[in-house]
Amino acid sequence: MTQQMAGMEKNITEGDQVWLSTKPLTLKGNTKLIPKWISPSKVMECLTGACHLHLPSTMCIHPVINLSFLKVFISPMKKDPPWRIKQGIIKTADEEGEVREILKHHKTKRCREYLVFWMDGDQTWELIHHLWNTPDVLKDYLHHYPYLSMPHWLCRAQPQGEDSVRNWDEGPYDRRIPLFL
Fold first, then answer.
1. Domains of the chain
2. In the chain, which residues have pLDDT < 70?
3. 3-state DSSP: the chain helix, strand, coil percent, rounded to 5?
């Protein structure tokens, strides 16, 4: 630990568990409250000045990380009190929960967030692009709020011809309100 703090050579080898620094990552929330190190990850390959990590599928970053952003993970001992053990919980895509329903929404500085009620009982605020795998739940919610815009990946292509005029009660596929009636 003292060598790492002094900036000495890190003795990271293939198969080791390492912590990943959150400095180069863009994480949501107060920067003072987010963890400084996350995800004890396994080193798959050691390169010159970097390591190839086995990261969970939910982390959308490149797996080759510079050594300056890594720290060797020391597993907790049995005698350590529970409050001293600091391990982040990151779910893989298989462990990811299912959305039961979307409860409400609010606008932040530049984007809209949705309060999601998960099947396991948790409630979290999520961005709309985090809900791409639940199109039916999102369509049901947006149907009740016609002034909200539909994301491009959820819209269907409009048919041409006589059927191109859509009944507003049919579904929330085109949310644009005509300027002139």
1. 2-76 (2.30.30), 99-156 (2.40.50.40)
2. 1-9, 80, 82-96, 156-181
3. 15, 25, 60
Do 99 and 123 touch, CB atoms closer than 8 A?
Answer: no
Q: Which two three-digit tokens encode residue 159?
A: 């048919």
Q: CA-CA-CA-CA torsion for 28, 33, 37, 39, nearest 10 degrees?
A: -60
Question: What is the C-alpha separation between 141 and 147, in angstroms, rounded?
Answer: 12
E strand intervals along the chain: 17-21, 37-47, 50-54, 64-66, 70-72, 99-107, 112-118, 123-127
Q: Decide: 49 and 81 in contact? Cβ < 8 Å.
A: no
pLDDT at 156: 59
Provide the pairing of β-strand 112-118 with 99-107.
Answer: antiparallel
Q: What are phi and psi of 85, to 5 degrees?
A: -85, 115
- CA dihedral for 40, 43, 46, 52, sign (positive or negative): negative
Extract the tokens encoding 23: 């400095």
Q: Which tokens in the block code for residue 88?
A: 């982040």
